[in-house]
Amino acid sequence: MTYSPSYTTRAQAKAAYAERNRNRFLRVLVRDTLLLIREFRWILLAFFIMIGLATFSFFILWNASSAPDNGLSLTQTLFFIITMTFFEPTLDFQEVNAWYLQIYFFMMPLVGLIFLTLGVADFAVLLFNRRAREEQWEETVASTFSGHIIVVGLGHVGLRVVRELIILGEDIVVIEKDEIDDHFAEARSYDIPIIVADGRSEDSLRKAGIDKASGVIIATNNDLVNLEIASRIRENNPNIRLVMRMFDDDFAQVMAERFDISAVFSSSALAAPAFAGAATGTEIIQTFKVADTVLAMGRLEVQPGCRLDGATVREVETEVDVSVVFWQGANSAKIDVHPARDHLIRSGDTIAVVAGIPDIKRLASEWNRM
Q: Could you tell me if 1 and 343 are in contact, meaning their C-beta atoms sit under 8 angstroms apart?
């Protein structure tokens, strides 16, 4: 099957992911503004009531004491009151003769100052400087996600998981309690929301959208913490797909049954075959486990004059217990996922095979050498 990738490089996939997240900016902005208004609702309500009362009283008193041709509209009065409140009166004090109107020139700045200190100034700063409340902003971004993947732990493994999920085009929310500057910077460069909190906390899971997420990957480097997180997740969402990292491979299988975990991976167990393959001169791209069998994907660049040069996919798969799952022509962007069995392999081509490590080693040593 010939395949034309949507993104030719990881960089392009990451750029597309970041662009998709930016497209939700307006929705996040509206929701964040509403949350901010809710937080300051009482002081804002009191402030607007004060402005309204001052406007109507000044409007009535001015028009009652002025000639008909010198009256003010409500809009003009509102403008004058607002400018008085913030120390920039646009109405000339010398033109106001009534003492009860002159009082407004002294009273409104004082009242405005009181409201500014009580929270109106804070509201204005936070409204126009979202990064001043980065934690709340990212929680708001996370609240707009649905069907996303939650990654708990942004260490070395967690960051690699995030990179792979980006390539797959999944929406991601991260939970990490320790701020790791370079890891946080990379995740935020893709506009991924990070909940800075302990993954064992029910509150942090709620902020990450555990009720709307499609899956959770637990990737911290502490097995006991991972188990606590798994237990908490199962309490909040019994049906969510749960994937967990553990160091002890045997213990991992027991816990997978105990907590109904979809998949448990031991980093050391998965990495060991790759190290062994590299030591024998075989390039192992990825290892994975099916039941109790560890399989690997190996990559080979076909050498001129070797046994692979001129062989068909059928011959390779028949004589060596491997499955050819990928082919790319020499000096060509064209690739074929699971090439036809009569496909001819030539020198300079790149193929990827799935098999056990010994079979991949045999293919590399017996079929890809001159």
A: no
